[in-house]
Amino acid sequence: MNKTVLIIDDELDLRELLKLTLAKMDIDSTAVETVKEAKTALQEKTFDLCLTDMRLPDGNGLELVDYVQKNYPQLPIAVLTAYGNVDLAVDALKLGAFDFLSKPIELSRLRALITNALTLSPKSLSAESQTANSSQLLLGDSSLMKSIRQQIGKVARSQAPMFISGESGTGKELAARSIHGLSPRAAEPFVPVNCGAIPSNLMESEFFGHRKGSFTGAFEDKQGLFQAANGGTLFLDEVADLPLDMQVKLLRAIQEKRIRPVGSETEIDVDVRLISATHKNLQEAVNRGDFRSDLFYRLNVIDIHMPSLRQRPEDIQPLAEHILSGFNANNKPVSLSPGALNALLNYSFPGNVRELENILERACTLCDKNRIELEDLKLYPEGASSELPAEKTLRSSQSERAESRIPISSLDDHLEEIEKEILIETLEQARWNKTEAAKKLGISFRSIRYRLEKLGLNDE
């Protein structure tokens, strides 16, 4: 049975173009001119996709998007907007539109949109299947996690850019992977990138690619991240670390759906869904002038906030059991003693799920007879010293060095020694997680990496 598309547009030429394109794709279509006619058609017949113009004689596309979302939530609807009128398109995406196309319509983009939309079958969009699929990555039976999975199931079918906020270690990338896995792009690439880990001078080349000879060291053509993710999802982790000049170029790529590789004279069409995330407060970055407000509003069309682990303590035990199931020693399951479990339930987990994984991995190494006891966790009660033995050893060794330090004749050498000690101490506290250490020090990931290289600490 052929798929059927409802076209709503008052321009005869555009209606005919859309009907002809759909016919060549072996897709049936029904064309109407007004919002009223569209509502009548929806009530009389079942459709697989709606394509609506933004301006209609008796209303607008936003009104129709809202109507479809309330009455036919499983039906994808895409809007056609005048060239450059991206703000209206963003409003439509926020209301629940699947995607948008700017006029004049490019047939290649139209066909790609239709193909993506028609992969959204009612079965794949059912609430039960959405929850089941997303729960494979995002574990937890707390009300907060159930709500997150429901949100993911609802927004996965949209092509709108998404922004995921939350503390480090809360599972922002897992949420992004869940969204991708439930979307019509699931069979295409999911490309994650840490924006803070790319040197500023290579950022444009990494994102958009380059042509051979475009700069020193460009010995061959290189495909950028946008091209690698074409047809799929590009996940921009720590997007707050993007420099301002790159923010401008990223904004244009989002708006135009085109990129220009470094050294190229022509632009390339790209079909990418953007999901961005950061542990920082992006609105505060906008207020400080560190992040462009126009880019923020483009990225933050749909937002999801990942709760911290201390906000959902009821999930600690099932998460711990799931993590331990992957640490089986000698083919025997590793278990938690009642004392160890109670300690975990009363711990604040500043590093969230990632810290829970690290604690359990260390405890599995230290425990005897595949049973983790309280002392194996290396946690400390409220009010006691929270330093790990390694941290205490480090402080002791630092004190010894301070007492026996040979006088330094150069102020630069003295400051370098202090900087080195501070970096080592912070990295030890963060268990050598450089992103977390940079957060503690209030510097960017690129900055801490540069300092580690300068001080020769990369391999320590």
The top-level CATH class of the largest domain is: Alpha Beta
Give the strand tally.
16
CATH topology of the largest domain: Rossmann fold
Biggest sheet statistics: 5 strands, parallel
Beginning-to-end CA distance, first to last residue: 63 Å
CATH superfamily of the largest domain: P-loop containing nucleotide triphosphate hydrolases
- Strand fraction equals 5-15%
Q: What is the quaternary state of this protein?
A: single chain
Describe this protein's structure.
By secondary structure, this protein is α/β, with parallel strands linked by helices. The protein has four domains: 4-118, Rossmann fold (3-Layer(aba) Sandwich); 127-305, P-loop containing nucleotide triphosphate hydrolases (Rossmann fold), CATH 3.40.50; 309-377, Helicase, Ruva Protein, domain 3; 389-454, Orthogonal Bundle (Arc Repressor Mutant, subunit A), CATH 1.10.10. 47% of the residues lie in helices and 13% in strands. The chain has helices at 12-24, 35-44, 61-71, 86-95, 107-118, 127-135, 143-155, 172-182, 203-208, 225-228, 244-256, 282-288, 293-299, 316-325, 338-345, 352-366, 374-377, 389-404, 411-429, 434-441, 445-454, and strands at residues 4-8, 28-32, 49-53, 55-56, 59-60, 77-81, 99-102, 162-165, 190-194, 233-237, 258-259, 268-269, 273-278, 302-305, 335-336, 371-372. The strands form five sheets. Strands 2-1-3-6-7 form a five-stranded parallel β-sheet, with helices on both faces. The radius of gyration is 26 Å and the shape is globular. Mean pLDDT is 84; it is low at 121-132 and 381-406.
